[in-house]
Amino acid sequence: MTPATHDFSVVRGSAAAAREFSPLIFRVKSGSEAVPFDDIQLSVYSKKSNDVRGTFLFRCSVADGGLVETDEYSGEVAWFPTPEQTRTLLVGAKNYYELELRDGASEFIFLLGTLTGIGGLNDDEGS
User: Fold this and answer.
1) Which terminal Cβ of the chain has fewer Cβ within 10 Å, N or C?
2) β-pairing, 106-118 with 4-5?
3) First-last CA distance in the chain
4) How many angstroms from the chain centroid is the CA of residue 26?
5) In Å, what is the CA distance from 99 to each residue of 20, 21, 42, 119, 122?
6) Rounded to whole angstroms, how far apart are CA atoms 39 and 122?
């Protein structure tokens, strides 16, 4: 199965966990049906032009509470990024993610793309 692709933009230093900002919503579906899973993992890497593999930034999952299943019937999963996570993103489209579904012994990349880091000049120094 070839993964779907979608690119997102994220404001560096923002806190969707505060619920004032919109989370990134993923719909894990095949046709009109939600895809069953035991866990979903979001892995994020940064990559500079001379990097072959990239640099690991962070990983979160449903199992560790970093991703939240918001509607099991529509296969909706939300990522509420923390300021610490978004600050690790490089400015520009140099951050890559993969959304991996795990169900029993099966593991496959369902969705992948770029996370474009925007802004983030406020580093909270002195607060």
Assistant:
1) C
2) parallel
3) 47
4) 9
5) 24, 21, 5, 24, 29
6) 34
Residue 35, class by beta-carbon neighbours within 10 Å (0-12 exposed, 13-18 middle, 19+ buried)? middle
CATH superfamily of 4-29+38-118: Immunoglobulins (2.60.40.10)
Residues lower than pLDDT 70 in the chain = 15-21, 120, 122-127
Q: Which of 77, 57, 83 is nearest to 65 (CA)?
A: 77
Read off the amino acid at residue 115: L
Q: Where are the domains of the chain?
A: 4-29+38-118
Which residue in 64, 73, 76, 68 sits closest to 19, CA to CA? 68
- Residue 31 carries which side chain, given as an amino acid letter? G
Question: Which residue is associated with the tokens 């296969």?
Answer: 75
For 97-121, write each residue's pLDDT tens digit: 999 999 999 999 999 999 998 886 7
User: CA 89, CA 39: separation in Å to the nearest integer?
Assistant: 24
Three-class secondary structure of residue 23 per DSSP: coil
pTM of the model: 0.84
Question: Residues 19-22: contacts with CB within 8 Å, 24+ apart?
Answer: 19/80
